Amino acid sequence: MIRIAVGPEDFDIAAETRRVAGRGGGAIASFIGQVRDDGNLASLELEHYPAMTGKALTAIAEQALSDWPLHAVTIIHRVGKLVVGDNIVLVLTGSDHREAAMESCSFVMDKLKTVAPFWKKETRADGAAKWIEERQSDIEAAGKWKN
Amino acid sequence: MARSLNIIYFAWVRERLGIDQEEVALADGIETIGDVVTLLAERGAGYADIFSDPGKLRFALDQDYGIAATPIGSASELAIFPPVTGG
Questions:
Q1: Phi-psi region for residue A109, left (φ > 0), alpha (ψ -120 to 50) or beta?
Q2: DSSP label at B55?
Q3: Do B87 and A115 touch (CB under 8 A)?
Q4: From CA A25, how far away is CA A100, in angstroms rounded?
Q5: Per the structure, how many domains does chain A have?
Q6: Which residues in chain B are contacts of A77 at CB distance < 8 A?
Q7: A33 chain-B contacts, CB cut-off 8 A
Q8: For an interface test with B, which of A4, A35, A49 has the most B Cβ atoms less than 10 Å from its Cβ?
Q9: CB distance A134–B60 less than 8 Å?
Q10: What is the pLDDT of residues A67-94, one digit of tens each?
Q11: Longest C-alpha distance within chain A, in Å?
Q12: ipTM of the modeled complex
């Protein structure tokens, strides 16, 4: 089962975990990405390409389902204006065993970072705004998966 | 036959151009994403700054990633944006 959601609203981790648990198996891996406090960040604006985002996230989830023995993949990503400590992204993978759940969860995040059409713009406490640039470490992390 | 393509922009590409989309007529000989980018780069200063260095840009044709050599074919939408930074 694939569940993809993109929007401004926050997600309910407990409810999403119950949903994945309901698909069977005894191993659920999760990743929660939040807005990091790096000193003087006032807010983060997340933009996306609505016509492409769902398609790109679904393709990543389908790849995970075909490469690992999974019962469920959930990917939820927020857009709009966020502040320090806010949730940004939730990935849940459910399987019979922890290795498949944890590996596939890591795979989904690595791919999402380099393929899903989201862009972050940060605004500092002094009002200065800047689009965040891609990180070489993210490209390398995505490249380590053979698919 | 006159062809046209809807081009949509995101993130700093959108901000620097000051528009989020535009319809561009494709003359004969404009066959690939790279041809369209060259056309945009020739439009003047604001465009040249952004489109003369396509290595900084990413492209999606009808919502699938493409590269400079990808043929436009019958696609109706070309998205041009910086490398993605979600997650």
A1: alpha
A2: G
A3: no
A4: 11
A5: 1
A6: 86-87
A7: 87
A8: A49
A9: no
A10: 999 999 999 999 999 999 999 999 999 9
A11: 49
A12: 0.94
Q: Which CATH number belongs to the domain containing residue A24 in this structure?
A: 3.90.1170.40
CA dihedral (A10, A16, A18, A19) positive or negative: positive
What is the CATH number that goes with domain B3-73? Answer: 3.10.20
Q: Output the pLDDT for position B1.
A: 52
List the single residue in B with minimal CA-CA distance to A115: B84
Which of A65, A87, A82, A67 shows the shortest CA–CA distance to A20? Answer: A65
Beta strand B3-9 pairing with B77-81: parallel
**What confidence tens digit (pLDDT) does each residue in A93-106 have?**
999 999 999 999 99
pLDDT band at B2 (very low <50, low <70, confident <90, very high): low
Query: What mean pLDDT do residues A24-30 have?
Result: 95
Neighbours of A26 (CB within 10 A): 11
